[in-house]
Amino acid sequence: MENEVLNTIKNRKSVRNYLDKHISREDLETLIKAGMAAPSAVDLRPWAFIAVMDKSNLISLADVMPFGKMLPNAGAAVVVCGIPEKSVPGAPEYWIQDCSAASENILLAAESMGLGTVWLGVHPIPERVEGVRNILNIPENVVPLNIISIGYPKGLEKPRDKFNPENIHWDKW
Known about the structure:
Blueprint: H1 4-11, H2 25-36, E1 47-52, H3 55-64, E2 76-82, H4 94-112, E3 116-121, H5 126-136, E4 143-151
């Protein structure tokens, strides 16, 4: 059964070519609210978000991200960060799962709003973490997980059908 949510999920794609069009603060806040609606272990929400609208910051981020050459042409970006000390006691790495769920919510919300995005991995590559941390003045106890580049799609990128029934195991491996 198809519905609006399933269509959004199936139509999500990585978009690297953007129109020269501004992303509003309100739209960024909507995306970040969607991120904050994600589940998190013990509802601790060990995340923080940096909305990047300044072109010089987008250009600087592209310089430290080997696959981030689309950032200077993006309308904005959201950096999803984790705060390990706010994660589940005894399981500090759960922040990665929590922030990944928040990231996917942002990607899906953007798709539903007609925006294009691409997830750029930062953590666990030390030089990327330090580069992003330095550009955006992120404290040492906060870890940038990814950068989500956001813009109005320039072309008509098509979603890929990634369904593979061979990856499903019923009841046991």
